[in-house]
Amino acid sequence: MGRRERMVRFEEVGVLPEPGDNVAIASRRLEAGTEVELDGTTVTLPHTVLEGHRFVVTPTGTGDALTSWNTAFARASRDLVPGDYVCTPTSLAAVTARGVEGLPAEPSATNEPLDPYELDESALSFGAQVTSVEQPGTFLGYPRELGPAGTRNHVVLMATSSRSSGFVTELARRFDGAAAGDGVVPVAHTEGGEDDVPNNLHFLLATLAGFTLNPNVGAVLIVDTEGDVVSGRAIKDFMAEHGYPSIKVPHAFFTRKAGFEHDLTIAGALIEPWLPVVDAQQREEVPLADLKIALQCGGSDAFSGISANPLAGQVSAELIRHGGTAVLAETDELIGAEPYVLKNVRDLATAKKFLATIKSFKERVGWHGHTAEGNPSGGNVYRGLYNIVLKSIGAARKLPREVRLDHVIEYGEPLPGNGYIFMDSPGNDLESVAGQIGSGCNLIFFTTGNGSITNFPFVPTLKFVTTSARYERLHAEMDVDAGKYLTGTPMADLTADTFGLTIRVASGEKSAGERAGHSQVSIWRNWKQVGPVEGISITTDGRMSRKLTDLPAEDRDAPLDGLPHTGLTSDAKTSTELLRVDDRLVPEAVGLILPTSLCSGQIALRIAAQAELEKWAGNAVTRMVALPHTEGCGSSGGASEETFARIMLGYLLHPNTRMALLLEHGCEKTHNDYFRSRLVEAGADPSRFGWASIQADGGLDAVGEKVKDWFSSFDLTAPADERGDLGALTVGLEARGSFSDATAEAFALIGREIVGSGGSVVLSSRGALLAHDGFRTAAFGSADPVGPTVAHGQRLAAPGWHVMRMPGTDWMETATGFGATGVQQVLAHVAGGTLSAQRFVPVVEFSNDPETVATYGDDLDAVATGDAAEQARIGLDTIAAVASRRLVPKAVASGNVGFQITRGLLGTSM
């Protein structure tokens, strides 16, 4: 137990959200035994209360409501007296897992049930919007023919699907530093890459269409790949069908039809004439009514609803007085706050549409077996947001009581007018922001408790942090210290200062995120279920009817025994030069920086590039790799989380990984402590790995130094060359597009040699090879169906022929799953187009299809000619050349790389 503190006044250590609340928020950590002067009496705290957690200030009986902002968020489990620590089973488990001492043995409260909200029409207030100013203000922006002015002027290179994301990223890189207004930026994302029509198609098309028309876009290139479901033509048709105006800025639609380098040259020639046009455009004085603010919160804590969110709301109210617009979002982060949001609304129809949106979101989540209680992340709970009701009430404070809710719109739907608008979206920050940008927002207010560093490529972000201590720790990444309100600065003064900063940033002053050069895009990800499913779905009353282990194994992607199929083998051996690394023979020794969530992904990528350039690990590794992804926060738990964690461990424990460091953002659901426990469960020693935190270590520069120090602290011998054969490898075999019977047999022959030599072959359960009778016969001795031996991303229990379960057809998700099983190289036959490479696992592409060879020959690593035996020989020799590092796959060399983690059948954005 910690030391006993002197007596303190309540005002020094506690914050009451609103008069009438019966619990207060601790403004700093209070050890057990602390004496607090409260309403003239002395209260002794029986347990430790962490900063941001709550303690009782008014006696409360068993079963009575515990309130913040006069809203019930929990019920007392026993009679509670002033000073008692308020903790629910979830919050107590979260702080116990972090090793906090002085905690109670049992929780003192239970979560308030998420019963469906019943609208009381008599309680609605149909007031006027906040009054306007006599003289509306202005800012310096870029006038646009279509309407609102831009706060920035970018050349945007937009991928229509994940299949073109590597292309636009590399294309933008080749224009780094070009004189082009505010720069050339890519919009690379994870969606639309499957063979089938995605369930999020409408949202995806609306968002991409909105991106092309966003006022911050000075020119746009829309890039697709032949055969894309989500194509440039699909976007054109969507815009025409839904009455979008035509694109007025310089633009073009470009379809990839040839080699990567060839297409980069052609696309680059389209862009080059636009650069001087965009660069010549000047800022002009435009009305503040042209400002459209996206309101977001991420890494929230108990003070988000006290300082940062109210401040963002007050600045938004001031903007609305000048004729501007504010857009609230994150539907699931308003569940439980319905009475607050609807206290002041334009009309009954708007109130009903808001509630219908909430209901629809609950239903979609319920189809996948989840409720909104899965939204709060581990960081949220640890920092005092015990459940979704507390998180929602705090988030709703971005809507001031005096401001009227004017409109409710769908995700990415064009803004219907000025005022205060709610847009349907998940609580996932990046996915929600993308919808707001698609709707037309040209500036982002991002409030954060833990210090989220999120930014968007072509729209500036102003980050409001809730406490001064966190602002000081992360001052280089934050823009506004809202914590000043907690230490006495009047809200009116903070509002005036922040409103001034808003105008300056809208007029061109760089935000902290722009100065850091960090940004990323994630669009509302696809979901697999489109209606109730027996045995999986739950009702919208918030009551979970089944446990994860009760669900069908395939639906929850449960692990299998990991033992191989009995297949055919051969005695042939293809030799290759490998590396002796510690106790194993491998093709390479990788230094891995693994982000624990989406928000640390791009930072990990930048750090890895610097580590590679400066040789932080010396000669101990052959290359440095980072694996940015979209998971770990803002997505549902359960089966999806289990698959995600399994994949992450697969890369940490991969035979090619020699050194690995986990980089957390700091407020995610799957933080460093989460993965420490997962590694222990897997029988691995966490001390083997490095650990760094963007938020806890003090921001981007500080965490970069910590990562550098860790990789530089080892004195490992360089890997030694050693002769081996392909039996030392685990190889993924894949075929995309059509292929001949001879090619199918060739793949079987390749697999037979690798397995016969002692290695492993992994196939996708959804892949074209397993669907081919000839391949199955040549590989397994029978054309009978072959089922999975491992779940998606599950490590193999023994070498041999393996099949990995795949919940979808997206190529990059397939490649990512392959790598997590232990695959060290993928050999893919391609027809009708080529594939992106995976960041960790080399992808080798060859083809026997004449048309593919003629069109995409420059992207192929080998051409497969002759009969089955000859094609197999070519494939085996190419695998050996890559394994010996004599050949770098073309896709890797050109920068056409990616990484994407599946959410399975039950994962959904939250």
TrEMBL record:
Q: Which Gene Ontology molecular-function terms are recorded?
A: lyase activity
Q: Which organism is it from?
A: Kribbella jiaozuonensis
Q: Which GO terms describe its biological process?
A: D-galacturonate catabolic process
Pfam families to which the protein is assigned, alphabetical:
GD_AH_C, GD_AH_second
Q: Kindly provide the name given to this protein in its UniProt entry.
A: Altronate dehydratase
Alphabetized, the UniProt keywords read: Lyase
Q: Where is the D-galactarate/Altronate dehydratase C-terminal domain?
A: 289-527
| Key word Lyase present | yes
Q: What high-level taxonomic lineage is stated for the organism? A: Bacteria, Bacillati, Actinomycetota, Actinomycetes, Propionibacteriales
Give the highest taxon in the source lineage.
Answer: Bacteria
The D-galactarate/Altronate dehydratase second domain sits at: 141-276, 592-704
The cross-references to Gene3D superfamilies, in alphabetical order and at most eight, read:
2.30.130.110
| Keyword match Lyase | yes
Protein family (similarity comment): Belongs to the UxaA family.
